[in-house]
Amino acid sequence: MDTSDxxxxxxxxxxxxxxxxxxDVILPNWHTDIRGExxxxxxxxxxxxxxxxxxxxxxxxxxxxxxxxxxxxxxxEKLGLRPLLFHVDAGWNTDQAVGxxxxxxxxxxLDLYTEVIDWEEIKSLQVALLKSQIPHxxxxxxxxxxxxxxxxxxxxxxxxxxxxxNYSTECxxxxxxxxxxxxCDKTLILDINSKYGKIPLxxxxxxxxxxxxxxxxxxxxxxxxxxxDLIPYVKKDAEALLEAxxxxxxxxxxxxxxxxxxxxxxYWLPRKFGFDRRRAHFSSLILTGQMTRKEALDRIAxxxxxxxxxxxxxxxxxxxxxxxxxxxxxxxxGKNKSSYDYKSKRALIEIxxxxxxxxxxxxxxxx
Length: 367
Fold this sequence. Notes:
By secondary structure, the chain is mainly alpha-helical. It is about 50% helix and about 5% strand. The protein has a single domain (about 30-355), classed as HUPs (Rossmann fold, 3-Layer(aba) Sandwich). It is built from 15 helices and 5 strands. The protein has a 5-stranded parallel sheet with strand order 3-2-1-4-5, sandwiched between helices. Helix 10 crosses helix 13 (about 305-320).
């Protein structure tokens, strides 16, 4: 991590706040030994009991990426759960992601439900977000993924949502200013869409962050469970297992299962805003002993994808969003803004995030 995170600080040893948080807060409370195994088995037992007599005892959002794919394997093969695999198609799946999903479904004998988001609405929203000039360009996809999954779980009375979130590859949270907006903010989305969107969002799913965190959890009893935090989870080992067992194919880098997210993180964010999310991704792997600092700095020294490929992706993104290349280029060189320039629940979300940290409910550093 470096000072492209404008609020980063370092101590006398040269350790940044993320490293100190990992060693002081995360590591003492992160148990992948017998303690984690015991908690894993106890929770799996509860899930099975709650799911008795039902077609499924839990639900997993499957993208075809590593975390959700390995989670699916653990849930079925190691814990004996009966998950429904749930995929949201927002129009940006890579062929590799689709292939990985098919291989897991067939190999594990699980059921897959796919929800397709209305393309005209999400396209309009994505163009609106681009025109808003804020760095948070994955808001449409993230909102669609989580909102659709939660709505489906509610309608089908599925109480346990299993997620691939984990400390092993994600102990360093991307700073908010790098486009990692904390949660689904309906106020922000509707304000930006009202200013730049072409059509109203009649069917686009939006479950506000406080609805999911409070109503769904405390009133509906829906539980979020992260099994990968309770077992030894090494990225290269998980990739090798999935490939050997199912023919699953690994991605060049995190989040490359979505063609838009790949473009956003590898082109738009670093070149327009100066933020390289690989710094956070690689820092997590360094802290968990899966990568050396030198290896990370060598990777960051050059773009993840070559120039010719990125320029072709720029053209593809423009055309898919019904923009000319010149129109997208004009947005790209436009004046940068932040979410502070729009109506939002950001102040309330920040207060809630700080409270969760103080209560020990969130161990990763929120910045």
